[in-house]
């Protein structure tokens, strides 16, 4: 397939999961996206002055003025800049949004805008927008809060623009590598960094950031081998969220994901550094605990996990199975996993947790809390 048959998002292999992860990295929340909309009216009123100030500064720089070239191009840039600024305060961040930001990077790269000039312009735009907010809000703390949201949004956009710069640079390096040893070295460095990043992604579950099922066999078998060499016990815990499927079917994946993230965070919180925590299915988790007996896991780990979850959501319950290997008789990892899985299902049946609304909606819980307040 030719590169012209793919969108920029497809070329960069950016998915919805990648987008959510990038937003988490830049600490952009749904609350932030709602708060920025409060600024749209102000920015619309000040838009002409903002853009005029911006381009007055930019055209005073000879290199940038030469790149723009003529008044017609300048007017088109002014119109595009106005659209961009308004979108900062209103447009939904989705793959279409990402495509537009990647295209900004592509256009700037094609017309020869160096990264330093692009970053310089963005820095100046940030200053103009922040000053506009500060001047028009009497509450300094709230103005600072809104300004911080704006800065993170712009930095998020810049990261996408630079993805395009990097992609273009890699292509140029591939074309020139036979004629330039330096380009070859740069390309190899970039490939190694990207490979390491991809390897890390393939080991982790994108929603919970726990190790994924693909990592289970490798990590667990290694832990079992080490336990046998040390002649110490190793326990395996199999965890299942009660009634999760019916809840997820009834209330939607977004609320279901919130439960999965909560349980994952609690598992991570009560686990030791030597423990390996995995998400192995939709609502199933495994914890491998070196140097831990079945009795210790039952009496110490499980109560702490249940207490941790109850502190946030009393309506979330778990079915938990435990199995131990060694030190007297060392079972293979797969056999221990099977025993823990079987024990978990016995626990699930004994609890008889089959109510379809066992886990109320996350939104409903928030509403109740608001009423209590």
From TrEMBL:
Record keywords: Kinase, Transferase
UniProt GO molecular function: diguanylate cyclase activity; heme binding; kinase activity; oxygen binding
Domain GGDEF as annotated: residue spans: 232-364
Protein name: Diguanylate cyclase DosC
InterPro entries cross-referenced by the UniProt entry: Diguanylate_Cyclase (IPR050469), GGDEF_dom (IPR000160), Globin-like_sf (IPR009050), Globin-sensor_dom (IPR044398), Globin/Proto (IPR012292), Nucleotide_cyclase (IPR029787), Rev_trsase/Diguanyl_cyclase (IPR043128)
SMART domains according to UniProt: GGDEF
Keyword Disulfide bond: no
Organism: Vibrio penaeicida
Catalytic activity, as annotated: 2 GTP = 3',3'-c-di-GMP + 2 diphosphate
Gene3D superfamilies found in the cross-reference section: 3.30.70.270, Globins
A Pfam family hit: GGDEF
EC number(s) on file: 2.7.7.65
């Amino acid at each position: 397939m030719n590169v012209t048959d793919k969108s920029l998002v497809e070329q960069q292999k950016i998915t919805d999961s990648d987008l959510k992860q990038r937003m988490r990295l830049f600490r952009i929340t749904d609350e932030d996206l709602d708060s920025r909309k409060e600024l749209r009216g102000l920015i619309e009123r000040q838009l002409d002055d903002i853009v005029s100030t911006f381009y007055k500064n930019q055209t005073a720089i000879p290199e940038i003025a030469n790149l723009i070239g003529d008044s017609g191009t300048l007017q088109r840039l002014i119109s595009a800049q106005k659209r961009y600024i308004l979108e900062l305060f209103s447009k939904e961040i989705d793959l279409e949004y990402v495509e537009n930001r990647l295209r900004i990077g592509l256009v700037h790269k094609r017309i020869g805008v160096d990264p330093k000039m692009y970053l310089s312009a963005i820095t100046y735009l940030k200053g103009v927008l922040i000053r506009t907010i500060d001047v028009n809000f009497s509450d300094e703390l709230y103005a600072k809060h809104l300004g911080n949201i704006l800065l993170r949004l712009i930095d998020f956009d810049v990261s996408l623009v630079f993805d395009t710069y990097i992609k273009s640079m890699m292509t140029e390096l591939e074309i020139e590598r036979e004629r330039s040893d330096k380009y070859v070295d740069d390309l190899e460095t970039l490939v190694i960094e990207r490979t390491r990043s991809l390897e890390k992604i393939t080991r982790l579950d994108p929603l919970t950031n726990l190790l994924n099922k693909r990592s289970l066999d490798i990590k667990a078998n290694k832990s079992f081998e080490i336990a046998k060499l040390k002649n110490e016990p190793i326990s395996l815990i199999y965890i299942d969220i009660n009634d999760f499927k019916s809840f997820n079917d009834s209330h939607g994946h977004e609320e279901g994901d919130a439960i999965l993230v909560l349980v994952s965070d609690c598992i991570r919180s009560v686990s030791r550094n030597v423990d390996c925590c995995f998400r192995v299915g939709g609502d199933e988790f495994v914890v491998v605990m070196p140097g831990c007996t079945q009795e210790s896991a039952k009496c110490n780990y499980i109560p702490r996990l249940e207490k941790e979850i109850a502190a946030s959501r009393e309506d979330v319950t778990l079915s938990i199975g435990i199995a131990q290997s060694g030190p007297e008789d060392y079972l293979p990892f797969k056999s221990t996993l099977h025993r823990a899985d079987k024990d978990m299902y016995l626990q699930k049946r004994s609890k008889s947790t089959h109510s379809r609304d066992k886990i109320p909606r996350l939104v409903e819980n928030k509403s109740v809390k608001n009423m209590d307040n």
